[in-house]
Structure formats: C-alpha cells, structure tokens
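Example noted here:
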Amino acid sequence: MFKNYIKIAWRNLRKRKVFAFINILGLALGFGCGMLIFLFINHHLQFDNFHENSDQIYRIVTEERSDEIEYEAAVPPGFANAFRNDFNYAQKVTSIYFRDEWQVSTIEDNSSKRFVSDVAFTDSEFFEVFSFSKTEELDNRSLIEPNTAYVTESFAKRMFGKENSLGQSFVLENLETIQIIGILKDLPKNSTIQGEAFISFKTLKAYDNFVSSQSWGGINSDLKCFAVLHPNQNIDHIEASLVPLVSKHRPKSKNVHRYKLQQLKTIHLNSDYGGVNINLLWIFGLIGVFLITIACINFINISTAQAFTRSKEIGVRKVLGGQREHLFWQFISETFIISLFALIIGIMITFLALPKFNQVFDLSLSLQSLFTIKFVLFVLLLLIGVSLFAGSYPGVLLARILPTLALKGKLKQSDTGGHLTRRVLVTAQFVISIILIVATIVVGKQINYAVNADLGFDKDAIVMLSIPRDTKLVKIEGLRDRFTNLAGVKNATACITSPGGSFNNWGTNIKYDHRPESEEFSISAKLADENYINTFDLQLIAGRNFIVSDSITEVVVNERLAEKLGLASPQELIGKYLELNGGRIKATISGVVANFHDQNFESGISPVFIAPRNQNYYEYGIKINPRNTSATLAQIEKLWKEVFPKFIYDFNFLDQRVALQYEEEQRFLSLSKLFSGLAIFISCLGLYGLISFFVAQKTKEIGIRKVLGGKVSDILLLFTQDFFKLILIAGTIASPVAWYFMNNWLENYQYRITIDWWVFAVAIVGITIITIATISYQAIRAAIANPVKSLRAE
C-alpha cells in the first residue's frame, strides 16, 4: 500500500513541477537554517559536559554589594585557601589566573621564536578538578613546583616544531624560564576554560604580587576559584556558611561581598557573570521555527489552492472505493517525498554553509557534527514533524471533497474550503517577516549608536600599543616623547588603558573630604601621565590638569563623582581631599572632566579618577594624523623595536577596539539580516506560487474584463488588493509584538536608542513593495495577454 502511495505521489509531483520546486526550495532553505541553528544551540548547551563529575564542579563567584550590586566571576586571592582549609565541603579546590596574549619565546637569544599565547597560572590540583586529556608527562613532576607548565599540542608544535617538546623550556614575557612537564590535547571549543599553557601558580609571584598573595583587599577579575564538592551538598547552606568570611577578612569595607556557588555546566549560559545570554539561544531557536513554519505555510497554501484542480482525481478515487483515510495518507506521502527531497538539499546547504557559519560565530563545528546520533534524531523528527504539519490540513481538505460535485464539474472554490485558512496563514507569514525586519533595524540602530555615538572622548586615529611589563619610567617616558616628536603624531600618552577600556579596569574605595567613613560606591582608576586628557580629548570643565610628582598628590576626576556625592556643581570638587586604595593614595582634586563612557553601553558611567602611577602603565595611546597613516605607523614600529627588541610589536586602533565590545551584537545583527532575508524570500516563493495558481484560475475572467474595457491597472488591483489588506492586518499584529520584544532587548543597555514609529512603517512598506514586486510579474503578464486566446474555447 505504501509503495503505491509513493508511486502516485511521485507522478503527481512530476505533473506539477513548478509548485513542487517552490515547495522543495522553501522547505530546503528552512531545513538548512534549522539544522545550522540546531548545531549552534547544541554547541552552547554542551559546554563543559566532558569533565568527569561535572555535576559536582562549582565555580565560586562574588556579588559585590555597595550602592549597587555587581557580579564578579572571581574571588579575592585569599579565598581558595580559606575554602580549602576552613571548610569541609570540597574534595578538591583549585585557583586559576588567566592572562590573554602574553609573549612566549624560546630561550635562544639571537634566533629565538616569539609569539603571543593565552596562558593560565594554576596549582597542582587543577588536573584533579578538570578532565583535560594529557598525551604525555614527566614522571614525578607536578605544578606544585615553580616555573613548570603543561602546554597544549598546538603550543608545543608552534614553539618547537616536530621536536619532542617534553622537558624543553620557554621564556614567558622575557622574564621567567618555564619547563614543560606535560603535554595536553588542545582544549575543546566548548570549554569555559581556555588557554595554551598552564603554568604553576607559584610562578605568578614574579608577575603579580597581589594575585599571588593571600589578600582579601580586592578582586582581580582574572582570578577564578573552582571546587569539586562532596556528593549531595546543600548549596544554599554552603553559601550561608561563607557569609562570616566577609566580616572576618573585610570588616571595614563598604563593598560587601556575598560568595555564591555556580555549577560548572551553568556557567556558559549565565550572562550576569560574563556568559552567553540564554535569551539569545531562545531567539535563534525561535527564528529557526519561524523559517520552517513559513515554508510549511507555503506548502499548505499552495496545496489547498490546488484542491480545486485535483477534485476530479479525488472524485474518481472515492467512486472506486477510496476511503478518506486512504486519501489522507496519499497526500501525506506526497508531502513526505517533497520533505525528503527538501531535507537532502537542506543537508547540502548545511554542509556548504558550515565553514562560513563557523567563521562568523567563532565556532569549530566539524562535518562530523552532521553524523552524531543527536543530529540524526533531530533531522528525522524534523522530517516527520514537517510532513505531518504541512500535509495534514491539505490532506483532510482533499479527503472531504464530495465526489458527486467533483465528477459533474459543479464543484466551486468555496466547496474545497481553505480560503480563510490561506488568508490567515499568509497573514502569519507577513507578521513573522515584519517582526524580523523590525528586529534587524533596531539591532542595527543600537549597534550604530554605540559605535558612533559621542563617547565623551576621541577614539578616531588613536593607536593603542602595549608596554612590556616592568619597564622603567624613564624608558616609558623617553619612548613616549620620541613618539610625540614624530611628524605624523599629534600627541602620545602612557596609561593603564584607554578611557573606554573595560579591561585593565581597576576599582577602589574612596574617602571624600576627610569624612570618617568610605563612600558606599567605588571609583575607577584611569592611571595615566599628564598627556592623557589631551590625547583622548577629554573635556576639562573645572579646574586644571594634575601636576606630576614623585608620588600622587593631585588627581583629576569626572563629573559623575559630583553626581554620586550629591554636589550641586562639579566646581565644588576642586581642592577637595581624597583617600583612595585604602589610604595608599592621598591627593587633592585639581580638575574635573566631563563624563565619558568608561565601559560599554550596557553599563552606566562610573566615577573615575585620573592620576599618574607609572607601575600601572600598560599601554601607549598615540594620536596620529590620519592623512599619512602608513608612514607614521612604520615610524612608530621602528622606534618601538629599537627600545623593545625582544618583544613582539602589536597595536590596534581604538575605534576598532570600541567596536569589538559589540562583537556579539554584530553577530546577532548578521544573523538577523540573513534570516530576515530568507524569511522574506521563502514567503515570496509562496506568494509567487499562489499568484501563479490564481492567474491560471482567472484566465477567462481576465479575458472577459479586457473585452469589456478593463484596464491593466484594474486587473493588477484585482490580484493585489487582498494582499494589501492582509499586510495591513499583519502590520497591526506584528508592530506591538516586535516593540515588546525589542524594547525588552534594549533594556540590557543603560544607554540606548528609542524605537521610533517609522521603524514599523519601513517594515510594513518594505513588505508591501516586496509583495507587489513578487506578484506583479504574473499579474501584469496575465493582464496584457491577448483575451482572444483565453476566450477561444468559449
């Protein structure tokens, strides 16, 4: 029986090639996008699940409670030892300190190989907590020893080529010589912990005294603490027992810590602590459902429209004994064949698109991802689900046709049903398309606003260049002055980071004007020399720049500090006394600059102080003349290499750095553009199929209208007026829905655009134009056809 269904279905599809092609192409695009989105979502859901006992591994994080609650995925340096020694909740506890792009080199002086690598400092329990695969290691050696490391295979190959790297040594940041005691397989992309070299924690003392200490005075965001808990622990109870650590180790701090435990497998999808926003996965999944739904709607619309032309076929089958259920399954078989062809093409689309998809989203999905059990099950469920969803309603509609009316030729379009359903489904297509267009416009506007808005500082034509650690002040200032003397350089400064740099950000407590207590809020440090304000064109609105001396005696603050202190004017700050960093910095305020965005637009503007402190100068900011960029950059590189010949020269432009802060949003925008275009294209395929069918049905009517004096415009209006009504209804439904979801998305930003009425108007008008363009070809062709041909048979 099933074989017979397939045969008849195949003949029907060959008979109606155009409509079969439209259905297959629409479904194939829907399937292809659905499969890519499935791989994307599955990749994010599978983070960190490869570790043994992953359910028992937790990261300890901190809620910092001052005037606001801030979430920090780190703990004070002294926390790990306290949790290990003072409590009995964990089997193993490990600390990890991450550093991006540190220079590593071979130990030869003249021909040493140099490159940058992501490194981490950790202790001997690290590999007892995490199940990273080791390929080889030296016996009786561990990370308890200083200056030892495990490195990945990629690191070893880059450093030593084909040589056996076990037991070899490399130099870190031209300071410490590190011996390789073990080799790891490259870490999976779906691992929260990333890095190429894992160095013993004791080695860190040579690079960072604060993190390597047992201090409780603050938090470095790169220092993480993980623990393997004993089975069946009560997490709420553990968190409550950690509260006394605050009063014991931080009794005077107004920044009250609350230490929380975060299960390893939940880390990646927790945006409060730097993970991916899980709402993004829901949005991507919903978009995939939208695209497949639009393709199914096309199928249903075209199939129900064809019910009238297939009425005699159905009538004959019923007279010859065909039952309704037989006819239903016959149509399901046709749908299955179409879906199967579409699925095969969709898999090919996925296969071809996967490399580009990986590039856009920084993934490493391989072709093997298409052959996993989970993916195969998803594909089979997708095939069955679409076949039933797209085929059921048309199957029921065809099966209920009355054979007497069908065989006598007295069947009307209204007798086949489906007219109202088609209108509802076409409206649904328009609703989805309008929502996606609005989302694309809003996301694009917000990103454009964030990247191009006035940030309160100059970001154009400014080169940011790293300063090697432990460089003496005389060398820093000497090279800065040489940069400034270049013809193509307008100004240069040495600083901890740029005004909008969210990395190297240092927050500290503040005492104002000899008050006995610290303020409830913290203040961010932008440590820099006296050229900082002019280089980045910060606007001095009160007082003057600070004067540099051997110690910090003067600071410049932003006007946000006056707002937080409740002062009427920034002028009131001038001459006031400040104690910062626990009293280690005592200075007066010499000037106030206008507010600038010290972080991205998701965060508010913080109180900031600017002061000279050369041990925290990590970068040069060099303002250049954009007219001769290449020559100036070459001169800067030459000078830098003269002073730091053993370090890698690497720079970036500040405007590009600012744009990178919105990399996730840029990817979201790219995806929105792609899927909005596909949704519109698939909808247009369906409209084209529908209008082709209607034109064929109304050929004689058009001929009569033309004979009776009907104009081409009148005939065109005959086909388009219903669609105008449906677009208007769709716009009325889609606009509040799109506004609700996009307004919620914008609430993630402290500084955001408003959603103007014209955004919805553009989406509706755009859909209208696209719809007219889609149906006009067939409609105009029918309107200008010779009526004699269509009426010849009458």
Q: What stands out?
A: The two ends are 42 Å apart (CA to CA). The first strand starts at residue 57 and ends at 65.
